[in-house]
Records
---
Amino acid sequence: MGGREATMVLLDENGIRCDGRKVDEPRRIMIRAGGLKNADGSAYIEFGDNKILVGVFGPRDVHPKHMANTDTGILRVRYHMEPFSVGERKNPAPSRREIEISKVIKEALEPAVMLDKFPRTAVDVFIEVLQADGGTRCAALTAASVALADAGIPMRDMVAAIAAGKVADTVILDVNNEEDQAGQADMPMGYMPNIGKITLLQLDGVLTPEEYKKCIEVGIDGCKKVYELQKQALNDKYFGNRD
Ligand code: ADP
C-alpha cells in the first residue's frame, strides 16, 4: 500500500480515477446464473476485468466420513486462481493467499446458508478465477452466493460483496488492481442487504475513524447495487427466456 502512489496518478484534478471512473462508481458487473451442466448450481461473473466461474455441488455425502457433522451440513469452499489468470504465470499449487481467501469466503457465506436441514452432508463451492484484476474475493463471494441459490440451497439471504478503499486521501468504491497496489487502503466487504448484516470485512492499509465510517457506508451502498444484479441474474435464468 502506498508504495507507488507518488509516480502514478490515481485521482486527477477532476476527481476521475486511473480507469476513468468516478470515486463512487463500480466497475462494469455482469452476472450469469447457471451454465455448468454437471454442477448442482453455478454462476459466472465479470467484475471489471475479473472473470470468475463458480460451481456448487451438494448437499452430498461427506468423504472422509469423520468430517461429517451429525447436527448440520457443512460448507466447503475452494478458491483457486488459474496459472494464466495473472500476467506472470501463477504456480498452480494452492498458495497461502488462496487458502486464506477460501477460508474468508466460507466464513462469509456460512451465515447465509441454512445447512442445519442437511445433517451429515457437505455443500462444496469451487471457485475458479480465470482472470484476476483486483477484488477477486468480492467478485467470487458475489458469484458463489448466486451459485448456491441456483443449486437450491435454502438461504437466509444472498451475500453481495464489493471493496471500498482510499486513494489520494479520498474514499473510493470498488478498488481495482492498480488502486490496490498503489493506493492507501483496500477494504473488501460482504453484506446481506435483506438482513442488514456484514459477513466479510477486511482492511489492508490505514484509515482514520471518519474514513472508516465512510468506507462502510460507501461499501454497503455498493453491495446493495451488486445485490440487484445478483437477483437479476437469477430472475433472468428462472423467469426470463434463458436455459
Ligand atoms: P483480491 O483479488 O481479493 O483483491 P488480493 O488483494 O490478495 O485479493 O490481490 C489483489 C490482486 O493482485 C488480485 O486480484 C490479482 O489481480 C493480483 N494477484 C494476486 N495474486 C497474484 C499473483 N500470484 N501474481 C500476480 N498477481 C496476483
---
Amino acid sequence: MKVSPSLLSANFADLAPALEMINSSEADYLHLDVMDGVFVPNISFGFPVIKAVSKVCTKPLDVHLMIVQPQNWISQVRDCGAEFMCFHLEACTHIHRTVQAIRQAGMKPGISICPATPVSLLEDIIEDVDQVLVMSVNPGFGGQKFIDSSVKKVRQLREMIDSSASSAIIEVDGGVNEQTGSILAEAGADMVVAGNFVFTAPDPLVAIRSLRAL
Ligand code: DX5
Ligand code: ZN
C-alpha cells in the first residue's frame, strides 16, 4: 500500500519537524489539503504555504483541493511542483475540460468524490484521470471516523478500473488507521491518506511503515 501522510494534522506553528519526519519516512507522497470555507466548512492553507513546503519536502506532492472552481487554480498548483492535482467532482461543472487542463499543465489529474457521491458518476472520465480519491469521511476536518460504506465504493471502483483502459490509482482519504487500512487494501485501494493516525502515533515513522506493509 502506498501512503500519503496529510500535513493537516501537523503542528502549523512548527512545520519543520513534521517535514523532516516525512522526508526520513517511507511515505510515498505528502498529502496537502486546500480548503476554501465554501466547498467545505473549514479553511486550511493555500498556495504560498504549499510552495514553501515544496522547497523543504523531498516527497512528491499530492494536492487535494476542497475548493469551488478548481479550474481557476491550475497554474498555482503547478507552480508548487505538485505531482497530483486532485479536485472534487462535486465542485466543478466542466470536469473533462479541467482534467485535460491539469494534464496539459504537466500534472497528473485526480478526481475526488464525497461519501454520498456514487462511483458510477466516474464512468465517463475514468480513462482520463490518474487518480481517484475516495473520501471516507465528509471532507473538511482531520480526525473523523471512517465511513464503512466507503469500502463498497473502493470495490466498485476497482472493478470499473480493471475492466477499462484506465490505470488510475485508487486513493482513500479519511479515518484511515491500521484496521481500516487493511480492509481497504483487501478491497483494492492503492494508496491511503493518513493524518491523525500518523501524527498522533507515538512513533509516526512506525505508523507510516505499518500502513505501507498492508
Ligand atoms: C479531510 C482531508 C484529509 C484529512 C485526513 O477533509 O481531506 O486529508 O487530513 O485526516 P485523517 O487521516 O485524520 O482522517
Ligand atoms: Zn485530503
